[in-house]
Amino acid sequence: MLFFGMEGVFSALPLQALLRAGVTVCALVVPASWRQGPADQPKGQRPPPLRPLLAPTSRHGARPLLPVLNRALAVSPVALALQAGLPVWEVSRLQAEEAIATLAAYQPDVLCVACFPYRLPVPLLTLPRLGAINLHPSLLPALRGPEPLFWVFREGLSETGVTVHLLEERLDAGPIIDQERIGVPDGITYAELERRCALCGARLLVRAVQALAAGTARSYPQDEQRSSYRPAPSPADLLVPASDWPARRVYNFIRGVASWAGPLPVTSQQEMLFASDALAWWDPSAGRPLTSLPGALPATERLLPCGSGLVHLRLASGEAAHAVPASPEQS
User: Fold this and answer.
1) Is-above-0.90 flag for pTM?
2) 278 and 180: one domain?
3) I need a surface site. Which of 58, 82, 151, 268 has the fewest CB within 10 A?
């Protein structure tokens, strides 16, 4: 097997499960451009399409511009692979003949993808004898795209899931081999939901690989009538329109996403706040009345009126002294 992934639990835990199950992994492939910046290359020199990685590396002190690039680095698939004695390849151009030839030399039976940011070219998709499979953190065909867990929080969903499917040229659209639902309880953080999806997905992935090897795998096509695609979140997608949302949705979005993306802009009435966390919510229309007001709040906290109900916020550093007037478009 060739395993394609990147730093974070959604690649690391499935790779760890495959290794523990005794699956023979030939090599790990990771995206070079997500580990290197322009400053890492000599001026005017194009990086090679792929290069071997000899030791785990990370760029310290660099914060991604968009939260879509954030990944928990506590569990590293690169460290797991190197510890197991596996080759690790950083790739920048998968379509290059050199990259395809290098990976084809492993003659893999299966290609496995778990949180890899590049589409695999057709010569790689058709390379493995048993097929190429992808682990996706949603109940496909819903929420195709690069960051489905963000949209679970954004759309206020109470359920998501994990899908193992066959890869094809269309993104996240191949036939489904296995799938499992996962609940999204109130107050869960992005990191915890990602961890639960990774643990569930790891188990499904091992089962799928074993079924492919045994010739017992079954798949069924995705229902295109039920399909949806969501892009990578933009800064505008991080805005919380508290006056338009019920308290429960505001609470769950801030609670889930702020620890992943950083303080979130919140518009309410005629001001904008930046929230670093949500601590509690009340909404009589949802059967959760506020029976008594909390005592005096510290300057770093605020009761936020929502479309219905209230949310108890923790403000970002400095927000206690500054409430920014909302623009006409935001209010």
Assistant:
1) no
2) no
3) 58
